[in-house]
Specification:
It holds the Pfam family GATase1_like. This protein is α+β, with helices and mostly antiparallel strands and 792 residues long. It contains 18 helices and 32 strands. The strands form seven sheets. The chain has a nine-stranded mixed sheet, sandwiched between helices. A five-stranded mixed sheet has the order 5-4-3-6-7. A hairpin with a 3-residue loop joins β21 and β22. The radius of gyration is 42 Å and the shape is elongated.
């Protein structure tokens, strides 16, 4: 009320007294008149309230007139006209084309009259400040005026626009930033911005909380797991507004636009997110794109003809998911001490998995000591005795084990037995040892296996048997060091001829250990499993190891069956069972493939995180207004050490069918890392084929990556204005949120705010007509009361 009174009557309290020499006379005169007024009203016969009111009116008038003697003046600071800058930013993104619920005009239509240079608030602002005008979408652009304003931008880089203006005028006197936007920024990042260092920001929020009816896909993600046949789960998060109680149809389409799956979500609730999940099994390798689209049930034709739709926009009704199936095939090396049933079922389980290539070395005859006395001329292993191959030079000698090579091997591959060099062993992704003693390997091969896991990042699994773990003398060996269990301090448990299995709490949390959908079905599976008979005894679990399967001993104790842990860059597992194959032989139904599924999921877990020689990632820089994509490439040599001086070529395929060739440069002076940046200009799906070459020009490996540019989907991810964000930056920067219809009043208050460059202005309080009018009103009021009550 006082602020309104001051603005209307221009009455301001004086803070300067120009003629202080008249202070004593003014006090004497005012005091004398005050005493005279009290004496006069004391002798009058009238009600007390009347005498008090009349005396107060006349006293105030007298004091006001007496103050004139000391010439009261008002001194204040006002901005120097044109010396301070004031920035006006207008968001021209497509989201301003939205018309809110119950409105016939869009947000942009309401904004345009206020952007006219002849608007009163702009005229008043230009009289006091040097106004700098900008429009922004993905980039900030200066404009002379807003005559050509058109909301057709593909992004809302609010953060970049504000920080860009603040940095541009960091050394200039800027009084504030007036921001016209709906607050839905598309350049949010994890970087924390200190808005207190920015000039005061005054956001003008465009749009209402109640938006028009709309179905929007907020986000689409794709994840691959180690489940059966590695299905891909595509999850879409959607939000509906204005469709409460209705049904929404969500479809999954492949790259050719063919419908793969359809789901219907009933009873949609306004303002609440809901998720839809699709599981697909791609038949192709490499980068694959899937499209998710949503629409009101029965309104599919609206996607082709937007005029038939009642939604606020259809630009957020579809999104693209990227699936990368380009890591395989994985190579697994299986080494067994003897032919057994375990290998039969393992090999059969992986035969139909195109992503896994199993090579095996199965020992069919042991070697003899070199000092073994021999009573015959032949030096061949005894397995060849009395055979046609006994005299051949290429057969294994008596001091060499006889190995059977199994798998789709190239000529000469594994011909020398277990690999003796990193070049040969590091081409595999995982190693499985089954019922094999430590003396089978040389000391160099044992160290090589440890390096395979710790340096190359490979997977390692040891299966149980009569010559595994402690029975195989692996303690105090490099292989024993990488196992997740100790092989020393092994205690002989109570004798058990048969035992069953149970899943630990940690095992229930691991998807690759589970075979069936629910915990109850898993319990039923273990109840139906046959009793097993071969289990190796081991010591305690190593620090960091996780027990996933166990077998009960008595009522309260258990023995570990399956234990895993990380080791260096890789992962290791110990499965102490030696007769898991009994599970298959005792199944009631021949169609039950629980064992095969368990083996496939175990092997996929084993190779899931094993690095390739060439690793590529495509990362979007969301904080950058141009939204560039950084294609980061990591190249290793044969020993999986960072490779310097590699040549990396990137072939980018655009949605238009064009192919661009980029050359990656060393990144951040880090050995083995290279990167190139690409700015997508066309919405759609992008592929990048990365080819790495050795310094001598020979090709190392080719790999693919992909990404999606969807500026419209990101712009319309939500239609409600982000008022919380705008209020936050206004508060922290020292500004405030300004209503669109209150711009004139806001500009009028700017001179009274903190401005960089100001000048003092002094004016006489008495020379304002409001002071003189107040004195007259007080005297006339006192006279009127006396006349009304008949006082003399």
């Amino acid at each position: 009320m006082s602020e309104w009174f001051r603005e209307q009557f221009l009455i301001e309290w004086p803070n300067v007294w120009a003629d202080r020499g008249w202070t004593v006379p003014a006090c004497v005169v005012g005091g004398a008149l005050f005493l005279l007024i009290l004496w006069a009203y004391r002798s009058i016969q009238a009600p007390l309230w009347l005498k008090f009111t009349c005396a107060a009116f006349k006293t105030l008038a007298v004091l006001l007139l007496a103050a004139i003697l000391v010439e009261p003046m008002r001194s204040e600071s006002k901005p120097v006209p044109g010396a301070n800058l004031f920035a006006v930013l207008a968001d021209r993104s497509q989201s301003l084309q939205i018309a809110d619920r119950g409105e016939s005009s869009s947000r942009a239509d309401k904004l345009k009259p206020q952007l006219e240079r002849s608007a009163p608030w702009q005229v008043a602002l230009g009289q006091q400040f040097d106004v700098r005008r900008y429009e922004f979408d993905r980039q900030l652009a200066p404009v002379a005026d807003f005559q050509a304003f058109a909301p057709d931008g593909e992004g809302s880089s609010i953060v970049a626009a504000l920080t860009g203006v603040a940095e541009r005028y960091a050394e200039r006197p800027i009084a504030g930033i007036l921001l016209f936007t709906d607050g839905n920024a598309t350049d949010f990042s994890d970087k924390t911005i200190d808005w207190s260092q920015s000039p005061p920001i005054f956001p003008v929020v465009l749009g209402a909380e109640r938006t028009a009816s709309d179905i929007g896909i907020r986000r689409v993600t794709a994840s691959q797991t180690n489940f059966e046949a590695a299905p891909v789960t595509i999850t879409a998060e959607l939000e509906g507004d204005g469709f409460a109680g209705k049904s929404v149809t969500v479809e999954l389409l492949d790259e050719k636009g063919e419908r793969q799956q359809t789901q219907t979500v009933s009873d949609v609730r306004d303002g609440q997110l809901f998720s839809v999940r699709f599981q697909v099994k791609p038949t192709e390798r490499g980068v694959i794109f899937y499209q998710v689209r949503a629409y009101a049930k029965g309104e599919e034709e609206s996607l082709e003809d937007p005029t038939k739709s009642d939604e606020a926009t259809l630009l957020n009704n579809q999104r693209i998911a990227v699936v990368n199936r380009g890591q395989g095939p994985y190579k697994v090396l299986y080494v067994s001490g003897r032919p057994n049933w375990e290998f039969k079922f393992l090999n059969r389980s992986l035969a139909e998995d195109d992503e896994i290539k199993l090579d095996a070395l199965v020992r069919i005859a042991k070697r003899e000591a070199k000092f073994q006395f021999r009573d015959k001329d032949s030096s061949a292993n005894r397995i060849f005795t009395n055979s046609d191959d006994e005299k051949k030079e290429q057969v294994e000698q008596y001091d060499e084990a006889v190995l059977l090579r199994v798998g789709k091997l190239q000529p000469g591959e594994l011909s020398g037995g277990f690999p003796k060099s990193s070049d040969e062993l590091f081409q595999y992704h995982a190693i499985i040892l089954d019922d094999l003693e430590a003396d089978f390997f040389t000391q160099e091969q044992k160290s090589l296996i440890q390096d395979f896991v710790s340096l190359r990042g490979g997977g390692f699994l040891m299966l149980g048997g009569t010559e595994s773990f402690a029975e195989g003398q692996f303690h105090r060996t490099p292989i024993g060091e990488l196992l997740p269990v100790y092989l020393s301090g092994v205690q002989n448990p109570p004798q058990q001829t048969e035992f069953g299995l149970e899943m630990t709490r940690e095992g229930l949390l691991e998807p690759w250990v589970r075979v069936r959908a629910t915990e109850q079905e898993e319990e039923k599976r273990f109840e139906e499993m046959p009793q097993l008979r071969t289990l190796n005894s081991v010591g305690a679990l190593k620090p960091g190891a996780t027990q996933l399967l166990a077998t009960p001993i008595g009522e309260s104790e258990t023995r570990p069956v399956l234990v895993t842990q990380r080791f260096g860059k890789g992962r290791t597992a110990a499965l102490m069972l030696g007769d898991l194959w009994r599970w298959k032989l005792h199944q009631d139904s021949p169609d039950n493939e629980d064992l095969e599924k368990a083996w496939r999921q175990t092997i996929r877990w084993l190779v899931g995180d094993v690095p390739q020689r060439v690793k590529v990632e495509a990362n979007r820089r969301t904080a950058d207004p141009n939204r560039p994509v950084e294609i980061a490439v990591e190249v290793n040599d044969e020993n999986f050490k960072p490779l310097d001086n590699a040549n990396v070529t990137i072939e980018v395929s655009t949605p238009d069918g064009e192919t661009l060739t980029l050359t990656a440069q060393p990144k951040d002076a880090v050995s083995g890392k290279y990167a190139s940046t690409y700015v997508p200009r066309t919405p759609g799906a992008y592929r990048a084929n990365v080819i790495a070459y050795n310094p001598d020009g020979s090709e190392i490996q080719q790999t693919e990556t992909g990404w999606v540019a969807e500026p419209a989907s990101e712009e319309f991810a939500t239609l409600k204005p982000n008022r919380d964000f705008l209020e936050m930056i206004a508060q922290k920067s020292g500004g405030e949120v300004v209503p669109l219809d209150n711009l004139d009043a806001f500009v009028a208050t700017l001179p009274d705010r903190e401005i960089p460059i100001v000048e003092p202005k002094i004016h006489s309080v008495w020379h304002t007509w409001g002071v003189f009018l107040l004195a007259i009103v007080l005297l006339v009021g006192e006279w009127g009361l006396r006349r009304w009550k008949g006082l003399a």
